[in-house]
# Entry
Amino acid sequence: MSHLEIGHLSKNFAGKEILKNIQLTVEEGEFVTILGPSGSGKSTLFHIIGGLLTPAEGSVQLDGQEITGERGHISYMPQQHSLFPWRTILQNVLLGQELTGKTDKERALDMIEKAGLAGYENELPDALSGGMKQRAAFVRALLSPQSLILLDEPFSALDDFTRQDMQEWLQSIWMKYKKTILFVTHNIEEALFLSDRIAILSTKPATVIKEFKIPFGRPRKKDLFFSSQFLDLKQEVSKWIINGVGEGEQDERNH
Ligand SMILES: Nc1ncnc2c1ncn2[C@@H]1O[C@H](COP(=O)(O)OP(=O)(O)OP(=O)(O)O)[C@@H](O)[C@H]1O
# Structure
């Protein structure tokens, strides 16, 4: 079970308001994406949800339980894969489970195979390509006991070809394991392709200015990118990103 509820969240750094009154829910099994420009505060929001930072105001609740400022409730996958270079892929993948004292090697090997990494379980991360390392990191997040996974721009370092393959792969694995996912990206197409719902963040300070429910059926295929419905929605989302900037930024633009 995992139902995330973020209520009235605000955060300042050195007196500067970064997040303002953020409100967002993620239902169990839902794939929700936070879409916002660089520097808008997406990582700060994730750090608060993961308990690495405390907010100035507001709360984070998981399944009705207050977890604000607490670590360990959520599986977090950062932008870089963060695999330990001295541990094999299998040892890396088992890490989340090791921390809770109970490992399931058979399940790990099965998921490594499903991630297209069979034969690499005893290799060190350096032997894998960028996309393969991301898949290994994602298997580790999937195997950890927490059912809510935060994915912070996991594909940003990958080339476009690998990225599209990874999006399809992530969708298939999410459909199979039905984890609850909160995803961050500044790539509109990626957000539209993967999400059930998109929350758009403004900047300076960041707040949720608009939510879109994404109507496309699943599984989604690459040709979706060329459908008129997809392109129309992309245009609508882009308008919100371009026009929905905070007051400070509007002022800067007008000068
Ligand atoms: N520890 C900190 N101390 C002071 N300012 C910070 C700190 N962490 C983040 N900031 C500021 O908060 C703002 C939001 O940063 P954050 O990293 O959350 O944005 P982001 O949307 O994740 O950016 P990107 O997309 O580039 O990764 C930035 O202006 C950043 O300089």
